[in-house]
Amino acid sequence: MDPRQRPYRSVLYIPGSRDRALDKARTLPVDAIIFDLEDAVAADEKANARETLKAALAEGGYGERVKIVRINGLDTEWGRADAEAVREMNADAVLLPKVGSAADVDALAAITGDMPIWAMMETPQGMLNAAGIAAHPLMAGFVMGTNDLAKDLQTRFRPDRLPLMTSLGLCLLAAKAEGLIIVDGVYNAFKDEDGLAAECEQGRDMGFDGKTLIHPAQVNITNAAFAPSDAEIDLARRQIAAFEETEAQGQGVAVVDGKIVENLHVVTAREILAKAEVILALQAG
Ligand SMILES: CC(C)(COP(=O)(O)OP(=O)(O)OC[C@H]1O[C@@H](n2cnc3c(N)ncnc32)[C@H](O)[C@@H]1OP(=O)(O)O)[C@@H](O)C(=O)NCCC(=O)NCCSC(=O)C[C@H](O)C(=O)O
Ligand SMILES: [Mg+2]
């Protein structure tokens, strides 16, 4: 599948040390998995987690799900060994936490070679250097680390996420300018379905490709929020049809539901239909 066409609606973190969760993920309808060696793994479990994860990935069974391994930072005692191990794992990409600048990405690439790299965007320095990080030739995607960000910015939690808006916006601009995938941060209250749905809706409106998750109970809500809705698909079809008809008459602007439709709207409409088709194909297995 063309990597740009692939959906990233739901991106589930799995602690690399948890056998049951590693197994369960093989059956969950997620688009991508972040196999975590960093924050979800206790310090005295780090070395075991690396081996457990290596074995799980070698065993396989994750199907079409994108497999991303989050290593510990290269400034920690585990980072270098993680990065060397990832090279040998059956993974699609490596995720570097707390990226501050493009130089951090260079340091990882010196170990992992040409493996695609994703960046955790979760520090004030990372926000200020987002454009340079996004432009790195091996950079494939951004993951918002809203917990670390809130910690460093000393913000309070608000349902409208106003204190994080500048950071989210900077990362979205940088990612979109370079054509990267960008997924939103986690929603910590994993039993609060309404809160999750509202945050998904906000992230989708802002232009995120999907959201990172911490628990299987969050998957269906997120998949639904980041997939084109039936109403969006219907509108896209009508916009394309109306525009083609208008074009055939030598005009450049159609009107659908009282709103103008120009060539640029048709581009979006086609993207919506293409995304819906890819999701259907994935669901069909
Ligand atoms: C939050 C949890 C600790 C809850 O775990 P648990 O009490 O086991 O939940 P349940 O009993 O409800 O689990 C039901 C079954 O689901 C499986 N499970 C649970 N979580 C996952 C998962 N993430 N992936 C796959 N499967 C999962 C359980 O094994 C049960 O299965 P079974 O027994 O077969 O029925 C736990 O959910 C958890 O550890 N979640 C991940 C936490 C995590 O990864 N944190 C780090 C990432 S978030 C982060 O770092 C953000 C970022 O850096 C930032 O700064 O913001
Ligand atoms: Mg973090």
Automatic annotation (TrEMBL):
InterPro entries: Aldolase/citrate-lyase_domain, Citrate_lyase_beta/mcl1/mcl2, Pyrv/PenolPyrv_kinase-like_dom, Pyrv_kinase-like_dom_sf
EC number: 3.1.2.-
Keywords, ordered alphabetically: Hydrolase, Magnesium, Metal-binding
Keyword Methyltransferase on entry: no
Obligatory cofactor(s): Mg(2+)
Top EC group: hydrolase
Protein family (similarity comment): Belongs to the HpcH/HpaI aldolase family.
UniProt protein name: (3S)-malyl-CoA thioesterase
Provenance organism: Ruegeria denitrificans
